[in-house]
Design brief:
Elements: H1 14-28, H2 35-45, H3 50-65, E1 71-73, E2 76-82, E3 91-102, E4 106-108, E5 112-118, E6 124-125, E7 131-135, E8 139-141, E9 144-157, E10 162-163
Antiparallel strand pairs: 1-2, 2-3, 3-9, 4-8, 4-10, 5-7, 5-9, 6-9
Helix pairs in contact: 1-3
Length: 173
Amino acid sequence: MQFVALAQGFMMDVSAFQQLVSRITEEIDGIPLGSALESHLNAQHGAGSELYEQLVEACKTGVREGWLCNREGGGIRYGRVLKATEATHGFSVDVVDMQDIAGPHHVHPNGEIDLIMPLTADACFDGRPAGWCVYEAGSAHAPTVTRGRALVLYLLPQGAIQFSPVASATAAA
């Protein structure tokens, strides 16, 4: 199995990453996005669990090797590594690398599932520490990392995301 712990010498590439992420997307396929799913993910696959640690190492490897977070804008490194397909049970997969910054405001038409992976011990994403965060369909936010640097893996049902229009600098106050 390609997705076992990287410390055991297995290679991580996009294909192996997809297999690893699919362990989660298969488990949650068809489950409504909300607080019950968030509780389940944190109880079963939260910070310190085997799967969480495998995902952290896979993401660090992908960033280091350049196949994750291979774009940059506004001080944020980001990238969509997997489109929403049957292999990912209809979820797209994006990973961002943020440090003490707020990202662009957006709406989650179908919800959003985030895996928070602090690279700085106390880093938080939207005020939350290491672990899972689930936003319901129709929710919105300006994703924000505080107290350091974190990688955040986003699972978006059907890849749906709507970025809010940027306010004009000349708009009347």
